[in-house]
Design brief:
The protein is globular, with a radius of gyration of 20 Å. It has helices spanning 8-15, 47-58, 97-110, 153-157, 170-179, 209-221, 225-237, 248-251, 290-301, 314-320, 406-425; strands at 65-71, 74-81, 91-94, 131-136, 142-146, 258-260, 266-268, 286-288, 305-306, 309-310, 352-354, 359-361, 374-378, 382-387, 392-397, 400-401. Helix content is 28%, strand content 16%. It contains 11 helices and 16 strands. Helix 2 runs antiparallel to helix 11 (406-425). The protein has a 7-stranded antiparallel sheet with strand order 2-1-15-14-13-12-11, with helices on both faces. Strand 4 (131-136) and strand 5 (142-146) form a beta hairpin.
């Protein structure tokens, strides 16, 4: 039996609670424009990328997008397509927040304030005696048992702690329904009453793990997560457009969100007034631009140092990019709510693992990236990849539900393939 998850109206209302903005910018009809490639020598080879992205927007299969890529030498491609879309357009990047939270955790690991294998219950008492959901009794009440082992920071950063999202977990969808536990997007503290669905370390499943990691950052730093990010990551790197609560000027650059309908057409989603938040989400909630997020990736490409700021040690960046979950497979899921997400398999036939903040493909990808590359995305079809071996990273941003949209994923692949082709030809 399939249990009801948050519907589109609920997701609009609750997920926008992750931002303080109460309205969206209305995008006016205009001419689609693309920024020129930053490296003229690569421009001819990237013409196919321009053409593919522009044609998709002109055909209205996507409403607009930004794509930007860089090597360790600098930006090699930047394109902005769609009415009123520019390279500085603001997108809600959702779960692309997770990599930033991972970097923040590792800053604190370097300082000795956090340890990867410390029991989190010592720091966050709510995790002292975690419970595992085993099912439901005849009356529908949840059946819980004590977890077999403690939850560590490594478990949280690798999505192996046992927490899940109800969008991709039938047991958690039912638990939220029968207990009234709020969906994570509502930013209510009661969300953290959710149990595990398996014992820590037993398997991988995507969930609210990084939200717990965000709470650990706050506990040891003494700062709200928004302030920590601003002081320790965004300001040093010059990421002036990345924030949970955006200004009125940034709202004027905010890209409107769309819903993919059953017939493939796109329907604009109305703005919602965000409910009152009770916490900053380490797992999602940030707004950013393609240029800003690429700066974060460039910091990782440069082993922790960029724009004159040393955020992480080189050995820490290398550790974050290493498989942390052994032979456990990661990155596959089935949706429980097709309005919000399709099923996901970013690398069909390729086993994937997880580092300290992102997914790792264990074999070369079909569009050029090396084995051992890093990737993830956000629910509104925003994606990034970082290839430490070939020293290249890219970001592609749209604002479409449901997640894992086939059209966007195809364009993502064409963008990636074009970047690698240009670098090979240069």
């Amino acid at each position: 039996m399939r249990y009801s998850n948050p519907d589109r109206r609920t997701i609009l209302k609750t997920m926008t609670s992750l931002a303080a903005a109460s309205s969206m910018a209305k995008i006016t009809v205009g001419r689609a424009e693309a920024a020129t490639a930053s490296d003229p020598a690569l421009s001819p080879a990237l013409g196919d990328v321009d053409q593919a992205l522009r044609q998709a927007v002109n055909a209205r299969t996507v409403p607009g997008l930004v794509a930007i890529a860089a090597t360790d030498k600098g930006i090699v491609y930047e394109g902005a397509f769609g009415p009123s879309i520019t390279a500085d357009s603001v997108f809600w990047i959702a779960s692309m927040t997770k990599a930033i939270t991972g970097a923040a955790c590792m800053q604190l690991v370097e300082q000795g304030k956090l340890q990867l294998d410390q029991p989190m219950g010592k720091l966050l008492p709510q995790l002292e005696q975690p419970k595992v959901l085993e099912g439901f009794d005849a009356s529908g009440a949840p059946k819980l048992r004590p977890a077999k082992r403690a939850i560590t920071l490594r478990h949280l950063l690798t999505h192996t702690a046992g927490f899940t999202y109800s969008i991709w977990s039938e047991p958690m969808a039912q638990f939220e329904k029968v207990t009234g536990t709020p969906f994570i997007g509502e930013c209510k503290n009661a969300t953290f009453n959710a149990p595990l669905v398996f014992d820590p370390g037993d398997r991988w499943e995507y969930g609210i793990n990084i939200d717990w990691a965000g709470r650990a950052i706050e506990a040891v730093s003494g700062q709200p997560l928004s302030v920590y990010f601003r002081d320790k990551i965004f300001a040093p790197l010059g990421m002036t457009d990345t924030e949970y609560a955006i200004s009125s000027e940034q709202q004027s650059r905010l890209v409107q969100r769309h819903q993919r309908k059953a017939d493939g057409s796109l329907e604009p989603m109305p703005p919602e007034t965000p409910p009152q938040r009770e916490f900053w989400s380490g797992g999602g909630g940030l707004y950013s631009t393609g240029r800003d997020y690429l700066v974060f990736l460039q910091m990782l490409l440069h082993q922790g140092r960029f724009n004159g700021a040393q955020l992480l040690r080189p050995e820490t960046v290398a550790l974050m990019a290493q498989n942390q979950i052994g032979d456990i497979n990661a990155g596959l899921w089935k949706t429980t709510n097709p309005q919000l997400s399709n099923d996901l398999d970013l690398f069909p036939g390729i086993p994937c693992r997880w580092g300290l903040g992102y997914m790792i493909n264990t074999q070369p990808g079909p569009n050029g990236r090396s084995a051992g590359s890093l990737t993830w995305g956000g629910i509104y079809n925003t994606y990034y990849w970082l290839d430490p071996q070939k020293h290249v990273a890219g970001v592609i941003l749209t604002q479409i539900l449901p997640f894992a949209d086939p059209t966007v994923l195809r364009l993502y692949g064409e963008f990636e393939s074009g970047v690698y082709g240009a670098l090979k030809a240069a």
